[in-house]
User: Fold these one by one.
Assistant:
Number 1:
Amino acid sequence: MNREHLLAAVRATLKHSDAAAFARIFDQVQCADLAEALTDLEPEQLALLLCWLAPARRARLFEHLPEFQQGLLLPVLHPPAIADMFKALPSDEQADLYNRLDTEAQSRLLPALAQDDRAGLLRLAAYPEGSAGSLTASDYAAVNAGMTATEALAALRSSAPDKETIYVIYVLDPEGHLQGTLSLRELVLAQPQARIADLMRPHPVFVRAEWPARQAAELIRRHSLLALPVINGGERMIGIVTVDDAMTLEKEEDATQLTRFGGVAAMQGDDLDLRTSPFHQLFQVRAFWLVILTCFGILTSTYIAAQTEMLEQVIILAAFIAPIIDTGGNTGSQAATLVIRSMALGDFRLRWRDMWFVIRRELPVALALGLAIAVLESILAYFSKGVQGEVLLVVGLAMLLCTVLGSLIGALLPFAARKMGTDPATLSAPLITSIMDLVGVIIYFGLAYAFLGDMLAPAPLGQ
Amino acid sequence: MNREHLLAAVRATLKHSDAAAFARIFDQVQCADLAEALTDLEPEQLALLLCWLAPARRARLFEHLPEFQQGLLLPVLHPPAIADMFKALPSDEQADLYNRLDTEAQSRLLPALAQDDRAGLLRLAAYPEGSAGSLTASDYAAVNAGMTATEALAALRSSAPDKETIYVIYVLDPEGHLQGTLSLRELVLAQPQARIADLMRPHPVFVRAEWPARQAAELIRRHSLLALPVINGGERMIGIVTVDDAMTLEKEEDATQLTRFGGVAAMQGDDLDLRTSPFHQLFQVRAFWLVILTCFGILTSTYIAAQTEMLEQVIILAAFIAPIIDTGGNTGSQAATLVIRSMALGDFRLRWRDMWFVIRRELPVALALGLAIAVLESILAYFSKGVQGEVLLVVGLAMLLCTVLGSLIGALLPFAARKMGTDPATLSAPLITSIMDLVGVIIYFGLAYAFLGDMLAPAPLGQ
């Protein structure tokens, strides 16, 4: 059933107040598809549909809704409906949702939970957004090293319904320290009397709760894990991050990186999203960056304005302002892109050795590109505008220097950003272009004065 | 053990030809970490280490090496070592590796495989790179609908060692058509006499072998799957795509997107990679784009050069060329970024409705930004350079028009790219900037002529 048909079918159930029909639709389609079809409904309609579902299904559908829509729903759903649904959510979603409720809703929710659950929730909810702890689910499969395979399987079978995943099994000592892992497959294939201690893999990959969430995602991807154990300050295991959360996080992080590099980094709050961000946010974030870029442009134009004398003498110089400053921005953007990409894929860190490696790779390429572009521009200048002699030299040399310097600056800016603790992609392509504009005109007119300065009127004698 | 220590330990085993010591290191560290530590070794050294390992471990280590290093190894490894390792690789890696061998190596390899395996390999290897078929592993867990839970578990237990994953179980009819799926967890928790037909989920999410690989990855992420069934033209299931391959693919695709948007799209072959791409490739790809961008710049400079008369009259106009054309590129880059991001997250397709939605969202924001920037620039122009009157009007209006048009063009270009079958990100930030340069100067001087044309010397009478 495609999206339009699905939405139409759901609207029909709303019209006839047919809860059973909606439940049937729920059973027949994928949860993610249903959630997507419902994005255009009003919050009140969506709340009604959710309340038609039993709490476990309500939780599943709610989980799949985009965050902004969950936010619109919370004030509209009745507190008892939220509480029932809450208990059916996985623990990492519970912590997430809890943190988004207002304090009144939070205080209404806590008494509805069993004491252990309440304590567990508050512990998870305490981890800051963006940390591995905030992605952690506390319901994981644990056994102890002294069990046999049969005992372990029996223990898993009884506790399995409540677990996020039973495919990765964690071996803990009585204090809760992680000793090893094994997979359900290995357990199923093992001899019945084999001891867990012999079957498990020691020294498992793990993440600390305070480390960034993206590091957890990277570890999951690098080691092809289904789940990654999370360790707290007391070296105890507190939960797991699952591969689906890791995959979603990496997708969102990459989208954020692109957003920043294109010049729309949101310095606080959510990324700009064309579909869901309100007008004022779209305006504010873009205006912030445009103002910065425009001010940079003012510096450049002020500098050019001061070169009026030179321009009046050699008006043709004005024609080449654009291509020369653009070249610096173009090569700078290319170089920065390659470095940012390598950083994102984990190839570079912040060591001097990495910066030196980048310069060593970048310099020959930049020189070759600079020569090629300088020659191209000079040929075109000669044939299309008849530019020759010293003016041609100025144009060609300026192209060469702008290309080489643009590449080097573009390649090193991401390191500077990382040093300052910012995502390198925040130094966006437009910002690199603006910086190179200023550098470019200084080089251009510097060369113009060096080679053409004798064309300017000398100061009158006696003054 | 960190990377340097690990590499030192491995070099020690090489120095003393201590195969057993290397095998011990292999057992103690994560495969991905070991593979990363070995990236700096010479191919001959790496080949020796691989041959010290039994075929199954050799295959695991080989799997984790980056593709370029695998390529360097293949000519150096002895054919029998390759053949042994090959048989131990998962089927999707086999197909991949087979396609990268030269025809001589391929013909040496095939006889070493059992007939069924050979046929299966050739079928998988036939799928083009970038298709879901090329990511497919043919070793998946299948049961039939008439089995009981106990029978199914027994069948899985016996075939499990050869399966990519047994956590998702596929229910096939005798012709190989996919009827449903269930998870190992559901099977383990089911009543022993329950029939598979009652336990399974019908209408599973699937991908067709000829669809793009990124679509398989997107489905896996959207529906939080561990594996996705792949269907061929005859509606038969041929294999699965697993979540780890999906996650790796999405990471690579996102890196490619960033690379393109920064102006270094590789029109053929692999993405540029700062660490591994050879000099000539780094030069060629970047030169290709720089030449295109430079030629665009030539158009712009030719146009400006033709405005010599106007510039001589109102030399101050030259000072604002840079900020005005930059603004179009900046807002264009911002707008394009937001649209590309939304497309990548699956929010927009190529429908007229989507384009209209984008224009409706973009236009008010662009107008507001245009007004803000035009006012800012006018104020700065007045106070810093004393620009006033009609010149100020030209500057302000040009800023306004460039901002608005830049946003609209930037927002619609990704749709044009998709229409032409190209990745929208290939219309990079530098390219958008270059296009808006030309548009910007045409608007700027157009306005200059409209408002200041009367300042130009009239044609002499009588001629």
Number 2:
Amino acid sequence: MSSSTTVRKLEVVSPVPADIDIANSVEPVHISEIAKDLNLSPNHYDLYGKYKAKISVSCHYSVWLKTDLDAQVLLSVLDELQGSQDGYYVVVGGITPTPLGEGKSTTTVGLCQALGAFLDKKVVTCVRQPSQGPTFGIKGGAAGGGYSQVIPMDEFNLHLTGDIHAITAANNLLAAAIDTRIFHESTQSDKALFNRLCPPNKEGKRSFSDVMFRRLKKLGISKTNPDDLTPEEVNKFARLDIDPNSITWRRVMDINDRFLRKITIGQGPDEKGMVRETAFDISVASEIMAVLALTTSLADMRERLGKMVIGNSKSGDPVTADDLGVGGALTVLMKDAIHPTLMQTLEGTPVLVHAGPFANIAHGNSSIVADKIALKLVGPGGFVVTEAGFGADIGAEKFMNIKCRYSGLTPQCAIIVATVRALKMHGGGPAVVAGKPLDHAYLTENVALVEAGCVNMARHISNTKSYGVNVVVAINKFSTDTEAELNAVRSAALAAGAYDAVICSHHAHGGKGAVDLGIAVQKACENVTQPLKFLYPLDLSIKEKIEAIAKSYGASGVEYSEQAEKQIEMYSKQGFSGLPICMAKTQYSFSDNAAAKGAPSGFVLPIRDVRASIGAGFIYPLVGTMSTMPGLPTRPCFYDIDIDTTTGKVTGLS
Amino acid sequence: MSSSTTVRKLEVVSPVPADIDIANSVEPVHISEIAKDLNLSPNHYDLYGKYKAKISVSCHYSVWLKTDLDAQVLLSVLDELQGSQDGYYVVVGGITPTPLGEGKSTTTVGLCQALGAFLDKKVVTCVRQPSQGPTFGIKGGAAGGGYSQVIPMDEFNLHLTGDIHAITAANNLLAAAIDTRIFHESTQSDKALFNRLCPPNKEGKRSFSDVMFRRLKKLGISKTNPDDLTPEEVNKFARLDIDPNSITWRRVMDINDRFLRKITIGQGPDEKGMVRETAFDISVASEIMAVLALTTSLADMRERLGKMVIGNSKSGDPVTADDLGVGGALTVLMKDAIHPTLMQTLEGTPVLVHAGPFANIAHGNSSIVADKIALKLVGPGGFVVTEAGFGADIGAEKFMNIKCRYSGLTPQCAIIVATVRALKMHGGGPAVVAGKPLDHAYLTENVALVEAGCVNMARHISNTKSYGVNVVVAINKFSTDTEAELNAVRSAALAAGAYDAVICSHHAHGGKGAVDLGIAVQKACENVTQPLKFLYPLDLSIKEKIEAIAKSYGASGVEYSEQAEKQIEMYSKQGFSGLPICMAKTQYSFSDNAAAKGAPSGFVLPIRDVRASIGAGFIYPLVGTMSTMPGLPTRPCFYDIDIDTTTGKVTGLS
């Protein structure tokens, strides 16, 4: 049994009750207990209620007030633990999923419950904050499921500690700054514009604000007194001359609102006909979410937010948030969001929740700072299990080539979650549709169908193995699976080169159901033989990098739209070709065609458009048509969600 | 000196430093100390960091887990203190302000610092949460100013505890539900629609979700089994048949984004040409903000959110949030927002921050629950000072006729904040423009100009007095004011019927500068001679109520647009004519014309449109053209806002 003081025993019942009922049946311990068990002192975190705490990445403002450190001061856990050694680093990916999901989050949580509550290991689970859009739409929550969940489940799924709200606010402040600046430039002379940007004070003296010096530096102007600028310099400084057609920055909302996918703004009489077509994305698709996930410190975040490119000037120069004077304000809006949120699993093991981009339209991994803090907290022999989004083709690929490249961290083991259900689909089973009852084929034994589908798993295994990590397949058992089917998956996984393949039942039994998986993961971590290998070096051209990834999908080639060609040429000219690539591709197939199951090959991958997230640090090709704003079904989840007003208990969250 | 354990002495310097520098020069005490001083125990609140705590209005979810009450359980402070007596209730309003503001928040905070830190009274300050829009736009923060501020000032102005973000999320979830529902109804038969709304489960049985029974009840259908509905009942139940032109519900954002004042949505190919013209308002203008401000309990909030009307069916019936099935989900999104946030002043007295609608476009008062909790906490002989927005013509009027009507609370004293600067403007001084240097007239003595402007103050005094409260004028002293000018204001105030008029310097000296004001307020509270009188009874017609308010503005009559006539007729037909009136009018004049200073009269008040906030509980006439979405200037405040990345210190917030 575990030496942890917060671990608690689960009493499991069968059949497995609804997720919310399980979550509500367990009384969480006060989060300060979880923190204590991680050797965190109260000046390492801020409480957000009784079950959530933000772990300090950077020192908190009140530190500057005092010379001595006391409980009022939030210390940077990262700075403090700089010297100490990391634990094992495990990433969880999956095979190409059905629309129902194959239990990747559930396996991530279940494995940690096994390691922490049954194998007496120091362990931290690193997961992404769910978007509220799907929570009220089709998908429901994302806290795991069955007896492997993060709790309190309602606090996990709603608001959390406000990080996504902060991203929405920052993203949209920048958007407002863009359109308003274009508007004001269109109605003012250089002189008037400059006078407003650098107004004289009471004594008639002008000055530049700090953020203005970033633009001056970019323009090669070293003067510090606004009055010294020549008319040409005034023009260069004050007039961003943004080309409205070049703007890639869109507004965001953490809601599934399909009617905002394409809109026209500026139709009010005061905006004098300066209408423009644009769109809203879901908040987790914001570049600011990617910045949060990939940043390494407050100072680094300030730089990344300031250099985000929103579009070009009419002469083709990239225009940044700092050019608009808003980089500092964006950082202020994000200053609390940089601290990961500590929560707990059903069995009382610690969880860090941070960042939460979708893996199909973004890079889909939780944050670097959360993983780094966790690796120090568990220390040598301990385990950090972090989740990558969707299939290993996108989630794990981006984890390796983008996240690990920026963090410098090296995983020892990659888990690929597989289910009999999904493999049957890849073997040719009928379509699986959310909200519709499952076809008979998925409820009765059909070993041949399973075996036929294992080609999908095999490619995920070999792709992931090629990074130099040991791959362990977690076979997430459903009640309808038969032993023959499960064994078929196991043999196929080993045949495809998996280090091990383990049948687990953490959904039905919690950590107890993932003990064998935990043991396999430990062995895999202790027996790494190769260094981390990336799929492509950064010094390749944008196209070469896209093609390297396309090849890993099984594509025979890549086809670029005119728009994509134009963008690639522009970004290369602007000097951004050295960035890694973040493909926006469907999670339902290796290819761009969601209907192509199994392991398709020989197809040509269409690149419809290419965007750049310069602040986050990647080039962002759109493979086929990818929606960045989900919609609501006829009967959204919200029909079932309510609150018991006498107890405050949330009902109907799934 | 005070018996409070948290009160601290201020060392004031002259000239008064920048607000943020003063705020940052004081180390706040841990908020649990402030709570303790109010006799709150840890199970009455949740910590949000070290300097903010949410005071529990309703019991917290974990209560239902246990029969015994322990620290895991959040108790309802309101329920617990039900029996105990209230303290004195003081509302702060102002004369018609200049665009620079006359220090209403500053006076509210300064008075409380005087009562708590110098007059040894139990006191709680109740203020509104500021909108982030103006914080990054023109106005800057709203924590008070000089040596009378709420701290930490940056936490007060940014995010706070997420209430406005929750309102934005809830408002926009409802908006998405409206357009998506119209879309789905347009593409589906009654039967298909009904099948999707009440899908059969594995056993083929259908059921209604709880929220659906609200609609069934409204339709007079008492059946509980979906299969029993007749085709006509299916049609009535499943088809809301919303008239797109009748939709008054708009999306919101807590950003000054003028380009969203008028937009066209639904232009994506998947939306099949179902385009619609709509707009974004700033979040604080959302009806949900008004619901939060006017609600009295979690159960009451659930009802109000469910009955919010978003528009009409094509046959003219109001369509509610519960008709759309989303009332419960909205309440879940708002479940934490209902708890007021406890903070502190520079001198360590307690502050409750809650709700924050603008008084020009909404009712502009902080929440009923915050005031109620505060009145119980201070108890008999204690003081609750609550702020009403802008001039007494709108802020105090709505406080009396809307807020007090719903809360049943009775104020003893109303403070009207006046400045020599604003009175000079009303006397005919040159225009005062934000961001532009003040005209000479405002910096040198001109008693005649001040006296000429006192007609504005006089009308605010007599209007406010007519509610039956004692009116105390707080003359907020600026360094450029002369004694003769200040005395002129004082005499004019007394002549106009003020109970007292006090010159105060809390901006320069903190509570010490408002001690005389505190003494005057205490006398005023102890010597109330009349009961509370409303300006109009609810059983008047909508027009009669509008006209009663217009008369108090000095108007000779009211002129209704065709649209306004149409809306009034509709709301009357729908049975909503018994609600109080919430005028949306400029704060810069008694009239609809912001340029008409002093005490204009004989004008005809134009009602451009009339809307209804049925959930919040008021009818909402638009007087002239009122923008519900501010814009950004050429050089927004955000140019100065940044963060010191080594200390985390926020800079440039004003």
